[in-house]
Amino acid sequence: MKVGASNEVGLIATGAVRSDRAATTAAESGATRAEAGVSVDVSSTVQSLGRTGSGSGIDEAKVASMREAIANGTFTVDAGAVADKMLANAQEMLSRTRG
């Protein structure tokens, strides 16, 4: 997945795969250009990711600041926070499977 300026889901490919919105736009405009690559079926879950709106709970300012920090090489990862979250997620998953 690629983080971009829009809410579109960017699929890592050679350009042969387009989002449903791009395919619909191309079909509506009468585009007949042949696409290179193979046909891909995208699950409804992935399609819904491409349709997330501004009400999706994403903090755009935080995303922009993180993107800038990554570009500048100043982004740091809090390993302790990541480990704590992984342990909490594992504990939650185990509690669900135990009933």
From TrEMBL:
Keywords: Bacterial flagellum biogenesis, Repressor, Transcription, Transcription regulation. Residues 21-43 are annotated as: Disordered. Pfam families: FlgM (PF04316). It comes from the Bacteria. Residues 39-87 form the Anti-sigma-28 factor FlgM C-terminal domain. SUPFAM superfamilies: Anti-sigma factor FlgM. One of its GO terms (biological process) is bacterial-type flagellum organization. Belongs to the FlgM family. Responsible for the coupling of flagellin expression to flagellar assembly by preventing expression of the flagellin genes when a component of the middle class of proteins is defective. It negatively regulates flagellar genes by inhibiting the activity of FliA by directly binding to FliA. This is Negative regulator of flagellin synthesis. It comes from Pseudacidovorax intermedius. The lineage of its organism: Bacteria, Pseudomonadati, Pseudomonadota, Betaproteobacteria, Burkholderiales.
